[in-house]
Protein 1
Amino acid sequence: MAFRMKTTALLAGLLLVGSASALSADVVSLLTDEQKQGGYLIPIVQEAWRKEGYAADIRFMPWKRALATALASESTGVLGVYYSGERAERLHYSDPIGKTELVFFQRKGRGLKYRTLQDLKPYRIGVVNGGAYTPEFDRAGYLDKQAISNVELQIDMLLAGRLDLIVDQKGVIYQLLHEKHPEQIDDIEALRPALSINHYYVALPKTDPDAAHKIAALNRGLKALREDGSLFAIQARHSHP
């Protein structure tokens, strides 16, 4: 009887281990920055993968660290990344998930204007440390680009006159102004034209043997959300990505 009970317990334990392994295989680990909290990217990705039997486990950290960790990881991906040919050599990209305008912001009344990036040579421009913007801007070593740890600090420095310009996603800038500086929303303004209009992606490391399968599942879920209108409904409920 004791042997039978031990055998039954052992089999039960093996079943539990097998179930846990199967469950973990259905979880996709993603990293992103804290600016994505409260935005539409996270619920869209979670719902799209849920439709295909996956759960998205999302953790937050500074963007440079999130991207570097994903690039160095064997299985952890990144959410909200822009497309880059260099990164695509190491990452599987999903279909695009939403888009954003990258724009320059100045303090209202400065009167700064530009037609080409060469026009911005005299100005101190705040960028997020480790961020990728456009190939032309990223290569523009002639610009005075000052790396700042996060977008919120960029805004503080712009309002304080320590930067002439900042460049980031239009929706994120206005969202942070509403949250952190509601009395100063009208104190900064966007420059035209936009630096670029970018799309957001999920990207998984190619070192993950299941990356292509997971991305294909995500793309199927995104297609279903577009077709039934859920994707646009989710976007409408959020003020930023």
Note: The two ends are 60 Å apart (CA to CA).
Protein 2
Amino acid sequence: MKSLLAALDSSDVETEPFPHIVARDVLAREDLQRLIDEFPQLETFPGYTREGNVRLTFPMARALESADVTQFWKEFLVANANREQLVHFARIFGEHFKSYHPRAADLINKADSLKVGLKHRDSFDDHSLLVSAAIDVNTPNQGDATSVRGPHVDSTRKAWFALFYLRDEDESEGGDLGLYRLREGQTLAGNIFNGSHLREEAVECVKTVQYEANTLFIGVNGPHSIHGVSPRHATPHPRKFATFNCDLPERLF
């Protein structure tokens, strides 16, 4: 199975408000449909709850050992979280990542010769980089429109963040990805709460990536890689997607 990054190159990168790519119709339709058809039942996700609009995650390390995850899904996760993905990322985003994180860029560029492990299974004790992937879902929203997560920045050890949408319905509203930048005169300092969230009044949304099936988003992580999910209106449908990233042994910012 080809990776989601296989057909992308540096010419696909958009730089505002931070380096990223939005790619549509990434997978062959038959592969997409199979992933949708074989998406795990909500009840099988770790930490399952009936609470509305809550994110549930099936980490790759656990999914690979689970009888509730099909072999096709396991192959998809492995194809998108491995050493080859690191090489693809360096080929696509190398110059942008270097300008953001010059010291870490040297590590990413050597990925083809380093020991690469899997997050939640391996550790930095004997691995230089840890890739990760997950099957993700936001539970159906049962009440007023709410955001599962507003504007925020990701973990300071994460090199990039990628989302692949697996929408299988047309009725729900919201749940789109928003890309933000700080408003003029605002800084991260003083506007962050709960560890990584930003005050709504300190940022402005400059781009929206629709929650549409077969859409891939991948962006370089950094202190200004602010993103969040738009409010979802009441719906009986879960929001289905997969995520991919890579952790480094030291903080990037």
Note: The first strand starts at residue 20 and ends at 24.
Protein 3
Amino acid sequence: MTTQRGFSLLEAMIASLVIAVGLLGIARMQGVSLANTQSASQRSVAIARAYDLADRMRANQAAVRAGDYLRAPQDFGCRAVHYDHRHAAPAACTPAQLAQDDLADWAAALAAELPGAAWTLCIDGTPDDGDPGAPACDGAGTSYTVKIWWNDKPGNATGDANTSPVSRTRVATRFQP
């Protein structure tokens, strides 16, 4: 009768291999989960910022009626009068100046919170189209649309040949001020 030797060692090696593959799978799932959590967090920031702009516009109806929010942002220092988060001497601002100041403050906050942020505010009947270079605002209807784009994966923000293309994510929100 012959005895077999080393079979237990072979079983232990196969069990170790199976456990190692399982642990690698768990680590990969954890990495994907963290990436998805970051993406969801950034989407929440973009949506909150879109609603913030809508609220600012609702508070300044005279500027909305005059189309002042559709102009380029410019910082007039009006926030010292209307918002307590800055310490400066009060300035007398027109609704138009406040609108442009709102846009400047809002755009600065957006840029600080989302990597590679780009945005547009327009009147648009089809909000779910466009890109930062061509936002595709058609001017149809009476609803305002804020479109926000950002780099969902900032590690490949360059988009060069050594990395995958830049992953741009877009949120579009329509509202009536």
Note: Residues 7-58 form the longest helix (52 residues).
